[in-house]
Design goal:
It contains five helices and seven strands. By secondary structure, the chain is an alpha/beta fold. The chain has a single domain, classed as Aldolase class I (TIM Barrel), CATH 3.20.20.70. Strands 3-2-1-4-5-6-7 form a seven-stranded mixed β-sheet. This is 1-(5-phosphoribosyl)-5-((5-phosphoribosylamino)methylideneamino)imidazole-4-carboxamide isomerase. Pfam families: His_biosynth (PF00977). Belongs to the HisA/HisF family.
Length: 120
């Protein structure tokens, strides 16, 4: 299955080259763009600001989760953040830098294994 990804930075949908240089920035509201993907089985949302520890785009992530079957990553380093994302309507949380056995086991116990996706 091919899963499209929406990367959020500074309130906009962006595409970065090697995680640094901005190659693309879409105009308009991210939730409106996401709605064009709503017929797809899944959409990945990555909050780059949260991943980089520079704030986040929580309101936008919440809006997008209302219109697509979302799996969300970026800055999920605590049980509380994972719960916040799942409560917003995400079907899965993507764990990257914090993908250590103890943390993953705690998440699986609390939310179920089906809610987790690991990325490196």
């Amino acid at each position: 299955m091919i899963i499209p990804s929406i990367d959020l930075m500074n309130g906009k949908i962006v595409q970065l080259r090697q995680g640094k240089e901005k190659m693309l920035e879409l105009k308009g509201k991210p939730a409106e763009f996401a709605e064009t993907l709503s017929a797809l089985p899944a959409v990945q949302i990555i909050d780059l600001d949260a991943a980089l520890g520079r704030g986040g785009n929580s309101e936008m992530v919440d809006e997008i989760c209302k219109v697509v079957n979302a799996r969300v990553g970026g800055g999920i380093r605590s049980m509380e953040k994972a719960m916040e994302i799942l409560d917003a309507g995400a079907k899965k949380v993507i764990i990257g830098s914090r993908a250590k056995p103890e943390f993953l086991q705690s998440l699986a116990k609390e939310f179920g294994r089906g809610c987790l996706h690991c990325s490196s």
